[in-house]
Structures are given as structure tokens and as C-alpha cells.
Amino acid sequence: MTDFGVGALVGILVHLVCITMAWWAIQALNFEKLLKANRVLQARVLYILLAIAIGTAVSNFFLDYLLLSRQLPAIFD
Q1: What is the largest CA-CA distance in the chain?
Q2: Are 56 and 19 in contact (CB under 8 A)?
Q3: For residue 2, pLDDT beyond 90
Q4: How sure is the predictor about 39, in pLDDT bands with cuts at 50, 70 and 90?
Q5: Side-chain-side CA neighbours of residue 50 (13 Å)
Q6: Helices 40-71 and 2-26: crossing angle, nearest 10°?
Q7: Which of 22, 58, 65, 69 is the most buried (most CB within 10 A)?
Q8: Quick one: DSSP state of residue 52?
Q9: How far apart are alpha carbons 30 and 28 in whole angstroms?
Q10: Would you tell me how many other CB atoms lie within 10 Å of the CB of residue 19?
């Protein structure tokens, strides 16, 4: 049961790290030309949603890779 809790903690941390990295990377883009003037709140929400979408996709990739690599030794049983 403790292994399940550790896996959950690792999953949460990986998701948060990847979302933070996606937020940091998105800041390098110049979206001002695509956004309407005086829509600051909507632009911030868009940044947050993009960071969550990209970060979740990246973290799901890494977590799936981790899970599959842990199951790989079962081939040799």
C-alpha cells in the first residue's frame, strides 16, 4: 500500500514540475499580436490553460515511460 502512495506522490510532483516548466517556456513566446487589446485577464487564463495542457501531456509521457520501464523486466520472467 505504501508503494501506491509513493507512486501518487511522484505523479503529483512530476505533473507540477512539468506544468511549471511549460509556464516558464510559454513566457518566451510573443502572443501580444494574437490577443485583443485590454483583455489581460483572458490572456492570463489562456497562458494558464496552455501551460496545464502542455505540462500534463509532457508529464503523462514521462509517467507512462516510467511505468512501462518498470514493467519491462516481466518479459524475462
Answers
A1: 62
A2: yes
A3: no
A4: confident
A5: 14
A6: 140
A7: 22
A8: H
A9: 7
A10: 19
Burial of 7 per CB tally in 10 Å (0-12, 13-18, 19+): middle
Q: Side chain identity at 69, as an amino acid letter?
A: S
Q: How far apart are CA 22 and CA 74, in angstroms?
A: 34
The answer to whether the CB of 19 falls within 8 A of the CB of 52 is yes
Question: Which cell numbers in the block locate residue 27?
Answer: 513566457
pTM score, two decimals? 0.84
Amino acid at 15: H
Residue 14 to residues 7, 24, 29, 38, 55, Cα–Cα distance (Å): 10, 15, 23, 35, 9
Query: What is the pLDDT confidence band of residue 32, given thresholds at 50, 70 and 90?
Result: confident
